[in-house]
């Protein structure tokens, strides 16, 4: 089943309202006191029902008492119809808060295995991940999978939050912490140096014990500030959109590179399309700003742009700054069975879904050898069904369409000239080219 990254109904209405013309003067007048603070992109990851969404709600409620966040109810984060019915987070929610040191753009990521692809799009924008582990369960299957994905996509910093600490003995908490540190070390993180915070997200949300939220914020403040490339042309992968009647479309995403100023001419590229428009307004958490820089999570009002033309996975950039192709050379590594990968190898010509940045696309892999076995790597030409925004050095992930299992990871080595795809037939198109 194909899923899409959606915004919650309250958030959609908030975005629509905040971009109305009559409110622009008021929004401009209420400039954020935190405008000079650096922004850090944070996300919660971990197994289903371990308390990621409860922790997200608790952070906003506790910090709202000091004017550092807007309190968000649990059911506004846990929002979609499927989630209401099943009580789980499928789509990704974005919200903001701040400390004395930083602003934080927070992503609540889904934990359900069927919707890991949305989690991939979420982690692609994270500077630091909060790994939530319930003390009552310890490390579970999706805990490991989320860590694998986070590592593949380039998340370098992890903070562990051991949730439901009030329900177990101290000795159990010690064991869970040891297990978490060993797991992090196994997946390439510095498990010994990682900050581990113990607490109860539910108790914090209820106002009974809020200390763990401040401990978590202190741990986040200690993580190193990532390097931002503010010079050069703009690059912002689009994670979602909201249509504004009579004004255009708001595209939402995190600026990966460069600086965007209000009134700049921009273009959106992806799925074979090139859309040119003007950034007529820029907002960061419902406050209009004159510019945004690398690392800022924002909404950009694109003048006159119809919502149906904009897709998640497109990239926004200054004119002629985004490269797009459906043919690339890449280095591919097939995960071994010990790495939760495949038991069997794959043949040249293998076709499956490729995930990179905020986009996903069907791709065919023509390898330099006939067979690739688990634990091996190979160079391959990758042909995508549609032209997508790409850059050299960009990582990608391969997931099995049947099992929803991460089976490979890779990196784009070279961008080739696009090839013509006739009738969605990748095999015929690659054969014709040969």
Radius of gyration (Å) = 22 Å
* Unreliable segments of 5+ consecutive residues: 1-6, 21-34, 80-93
State the major sheet. Answer: 6 strands, mixed
| Structural class computed from helices and strand pairing | alpha+beta
Helical content stands at 10-25%
In which order are the strands of the major sheet placed? Answer: 2-3-1-4-5-6
Beta-strand share of residues:
25-35%
Discrete helix count: 11
| N- to C-terminal distance | 34 Å
Mean pLDDT over the full residue set:
82
Shape field: globular
Jot down its keywords.
single chain; 434 residues; alpha+beta; six-stranded antiparallel barrel; 11 helices; 23 strands; globular; disordered N terminus; GTP-binding; metal-binding; Small_GTP-bd; hydrolase; EF-Tu_GTP-bd
Please render the helix and strand layout as text.
Blueprint: H1 9-18, H2 24-29, E1 39-45, H3 52-64, H4 74-77, H5 81-86, E2 93-98, E3 103-108, H6 116-123, E4 128-134, H7 141-153, E5 157-163, H8 170-186, E6 195-198, H9 201-205, H10 211-221, E7 235-244, E8 248-254, E9 259-261, E10 265-270, E11 273-284, E12 287-288, E13 291-293, E14 297-303, E15 315-318, E16 324-334, E17 346-347, E18 350-356, E19 359-367, E20 371-372, E21 377-389, E22 395-399, E23 406-415, H11 426-433
Parallel strand pairs: 1-3, 1-4, 4-5, 5-6
Antiparallel strand pairs: 2-3, 7-8, 7-15, 8-14, 9-13, 10-11, 10-15, 11-12, 11-14, 16-21, 16-23, 17-20, 18-19, 18-22, 19-21, 22-23
Helix pairs in contact: 6-7
């Amino acid at each position: 089943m194909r899923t899409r990254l959606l915004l919650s109904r309250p958030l959609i209405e908030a975005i629509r309202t905040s971009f109305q013309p009559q409110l622009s003067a008021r929004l401009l007048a209420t400039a954020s006191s935190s405008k000079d603070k650096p922004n850090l992109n944070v996300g919660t990851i971990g197994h289903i029902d371990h308390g990621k969404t409860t922790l997200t709600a608790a952070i906003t409620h506790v910090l709202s008492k000091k004017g550092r966040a807007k309190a968000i109810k649990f059911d506004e984060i846990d929002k979609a119809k499927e989630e209401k019915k099943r009580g789980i987070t499928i789509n990704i929610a974005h919200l903001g808060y701040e400390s004395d040191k930083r602003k934080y753009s927070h992503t609540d990521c889904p934990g359900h295995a069927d919707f890991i692809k949305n989690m991939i799009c979420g982690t692609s924008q994270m500077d630091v991940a909060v790994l939530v582990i319930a003390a009552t369960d310890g490390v579970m299957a999706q805990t490991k999978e989320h860590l694998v994905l986070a590592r593949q996509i380039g998340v370098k910093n992890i903070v562990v939050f051991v949730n439901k600490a009030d329900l177990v003995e101290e000795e159990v908490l010690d064991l869970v912490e040891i297990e978490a540190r060993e797991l992090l070390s196994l997946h390439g993180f510095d498990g010994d140096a990682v900050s581990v915070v113990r607490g109860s997200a539910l108790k914090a949300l209820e106002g009974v014990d809020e200390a763990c939220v401040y401990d978590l914020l202190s741990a986040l403040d200690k993580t190193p500030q990532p390097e931002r490339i503010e010079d050069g042309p703009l690059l912002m992968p689009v994670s979602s959109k909201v249509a504004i009647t009579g004004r255009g479309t708001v595209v939402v995403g995190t600026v990966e590179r460069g600086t965007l100023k209000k009134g700049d001419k921009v273009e959106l590229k992806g799925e074979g399309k090139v859309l040119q428009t003007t950034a007529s307004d820029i907002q960061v958490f419902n406050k209009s700003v004159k510019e945004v820089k690398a690392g800022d999570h924002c909404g950009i009002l694109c003048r006159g742009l119809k919502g149906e033309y904009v897709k998640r996975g497109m990239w926004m950039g200054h004119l002629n700054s985004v490269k797009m192709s459906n043919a690339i050379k890449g280095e591919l590594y097939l995960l071994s069975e010990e790495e939760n990968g495949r038991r069997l190898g794959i043949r040249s010509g293998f076709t499956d879904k490729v995930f990179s940045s905020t986009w996903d696309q069907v791709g065919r892999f023509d390898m330099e050898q006939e067979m690739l076995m688990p634990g091996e790597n190979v160079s391959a030409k990758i042909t995508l069904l549609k032209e997508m925004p790409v850059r050299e050095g960009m990582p990608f992930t391969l997931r099995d369409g049947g099992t929803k299992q991460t089976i490979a990871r890779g990196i784009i080595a070279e961008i080739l000239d696009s090839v013509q795809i006739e009738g969605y037939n990748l095999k015929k198109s690659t054969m014709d080219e040969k």
